[in-house]
Amino acid sequence: MSGYAFTHLRHVDLAVPDYDAQVEFYSKQWGLTVTATDGDVAYLAAEGSPEQYVVRLRRAEDKRLDLVSYGVADALQVDQLAERLAQDNVQLVGEPDTMQTPGGGYGFRFFDVDGRTVEVSADVAVRTHRKVEEGESIPVKLSHVVLNSPNPERTVSFYDKHFGFRLSDTLMHPRMGEMMWFLRTNSHHHSMAVARGPHVSLHHASFELRGIDEYMRGTGRLLRNGTEKIWGPGRHLAGNNTFSYFLDPNGNTVEYTTELEVLDEDSWHPHLYDFSDPAVSDQWGTANAMDEFVATKSFNDPDKGLFVAPPV
Questions:
Q1: Which residues form the VOC domain (predicted)?
Q2: Are 27 and 39 in contact (CB under 8 A)?
Q3: Environment class of residue 86 by beta-carbon count within 10 Å: exposed (0-12), middle (13-18) or buried (19+)?
Q4: Share of the chain above pLDDT 90, in %
Q5: Apex CA 234: angle with CA 45 and CA 210, to 5°?
Q6: Span 155-206, pLDDT tens digits
Q7: What's the mean pLDDT in 50-57?
Q8: Helices (DSSP H) in 41-172: which residue ranges?
Q9: Are 291 and 91 in contact (CB under 8 A)?
């Protein structure tokens, strides 16, 4: 289906004060592979993904979401997108140029309407990757990111207008109104979602495992290792994907998932789901309740990097 500016989600980059603990967590517990380091920056790949890395960690005094990165089709698309954004008064961090990160490529960064940094790129070298085998409870790829915004309607409108994201489903509550919008940039149910929150922050980053067995093995491994679980295991209705949410050492929520729905875009119509119905949040009924604890952890800390580009 045409009209998408982005082809797919590439990586999520985090700035963290507890850098060593974070590298240890994402490599030894979460199941990613450190593929490169550059001073106080570490790049971590998913074994099944052709992306050079799916998480970048940077040592910093303040915790922040450094950026979210998306792919586009080619260098021409990069230039055309940068030109359109500039004409629409979207603030660019810099003009399109050769990328200095692993895999190279051509791209640029800009600030979205909430002030978070977004990177787009093309022609990044494909990483040598492998098939994740049966029973391996490690991420195959980065599945999606969810972003908190105090004005989510504006945020959703921004990504629709400038990049052609399409609405797959919406979550609502009888007392609170519409609360989460699931947006896609390809046929997968969502590459991004926007949640109503008290401040701009990362809600969570989600990583796809090979299948149900690997997802449950990974969930169990983290529980045995004492990683703090927030919510799950269960299966959402929107997206029909499994979920187990945990906290990394810096308080960011990260998710193991699998079986995210792939849509027939010619026939799909968005749903408005009422998540006061427990079966909307968890079809299986196996997860702990979606309560104040889960919601508060998902709000995360206010992002201290808005409209300030990361130094690398």
A1: 8-123, 141-259
A2: no
A3: middle
A4: 98
A5: 35
A6: 999 999 999 999 999 999 999 999 999 999 999 999 999 999 999 999 999 9
A7: 98
A8: 75-87, 152-163
A9: no
Shared domain for 164 and 81, answered yes or no, is: no
Task: With a cut of 50, say whether residue 8 has pLDDT above it.
Answer: yes
Residue 307 domain-assigned (yes or no): no
Q: Are residues 150 and 271 in the same domain?
A: yes
Residue where a domain stops, chosen among 89, 122, 155: 122
pLDDT above 60: residue 1 = no
Whether 132 is in a domain gets the answer no
Question: What H or E segment, with its residue span, contains residue 294?
Answer: helix 292-299
Distance CA 4, CA 128 (A): 27
What element of type H or E holds 227? none
Distance of CA 299 to the CA centre of its chain: 15
Indicate if the pLDDT at residue 2 is higher than 90.
no
Radius of gyration of the chain (CA): 18
Residue type for position 214: E
Distance CA 9, CA 119 (A): 10
Decide: pTM greater than 0.70. yes
Domain assignment of residue 238, given as a range? 142-299
How many structural domains are present in the chain? Answer: 2
